[in-house]
Amino acid sequence: MTDKLILLGTAGGSAIYVYPGTNRSRHGISSAMVVGGRLYIIDQGESAVRQLTLADPLGVGSSNVLRDIEAFFITHLHADHAMDLPNFLHCGYNQGWPDFSVPVIGPWPRWFRQDQFGPEVPEEGIRAPGAADFVSRIIDAAAADLLDRVYASKQTSGEERLHGVDIAVPPELVDADAYTECRPFLAYEDDRIRVMATLTKHGAMFPSLAYRFETETASVVFSGDTGPNKNVIELAQGADILVHEAIDRTFALDRYGKPPYTPEQQAFVDFVLSKHTTADLVGGIAQEAGVRKVILSHLVPANAPDEHWWEGRDDFDGEYIVGEDLDVFEL
């Protein structure tokens, strides 16, 4: 079976934006890598289970479509990137599931401190969960449902189906609490794929990660959410495909209309544009990374005019694609 990349959903943030005069919308950010007959799910935005069911990449039917998942990956713990993970857990009881606990690989924990965020934060700080705690809390929240399945229906528990794995913190990043330039580091490896990661530039959300999937036939990079930065360009060097986020520049500006802005308004605009990549910059990033193909995804807002996403096309010599839900690319 041919290895492939599937864009399950291509919307960033809220997926409910509807194109005027149509019933067209994009579903939440999620992608699937199909490698050696196994599925690797990168981010689990709104409707990811629905979209994977429609795609049925291994042709096993809706009652078994989740059976071949090998691992989940989360780029960062903003809700739009992980809100459908509980649905995978629950739908797995009716749509197939592997006979092992599937790992959810993602960011390590971090601390919110007063010196970063102000006196509203307790003096001792607040520990924000990483992937391991995140998954554990999902299972705890579903206890009523899961206990019924275990004791009344004699099915496997949440822990027997899903567990979180914090990516090991590279030694040079042990003391980091914000975006830092770094070399790519190993996030995961099995007999089909090798996954490298790096930090991305995504405002106060830390750690926020980009991933590079290396298979026998191709290399595919997912930028995650990020403003332009050297880390992602280094991670993507020479890749076959770069799946890169994009924001419509007018999205940040429309909140306040046309400039000039007050200092507070300008600060907000600058903040939004620093933690995301406007569409006009993606082509240049792909060109500097020397990738063969760039695919725009995590589009914000999801109903922006199509032509807005093509603003970076002239800066890239390779294949430039604006992603659509359920697009399939052979590797």
Could you describe the 3D structure shown?
The chain is an alpha/beta fold. It has one domain: Ribonuclease Z/Hydroxyacylglutathione hydrolase-like (Metallo-beta-lactamase, Chain A), CATH 3.60.15. Helices cover 23% and strands 25% of the residues. It is built from 9 helices and 16 strands. Strands 8-5-4-3-2-1-16 form a 7-stranded mixed sheet. A 7-stranded mixed sheet has the order 9-10-11-12-13-14-15. Strand 3 (38-44), helix 1 (48-55) and strand 4 (69-73) form a beta-alpha-beta unit. The protein starts with a strand and ends with a strand.
Brief digest:
This protein is of the alpha/beta class and 331 residues long. It has a single domain (4-323), classed as Ribonuclease Z/Hydroxyacylglutathione hydrolase-like (Metallo-beta-lactamase, Chain A, 4-Layer Sandwich), CATH 3.60.15.
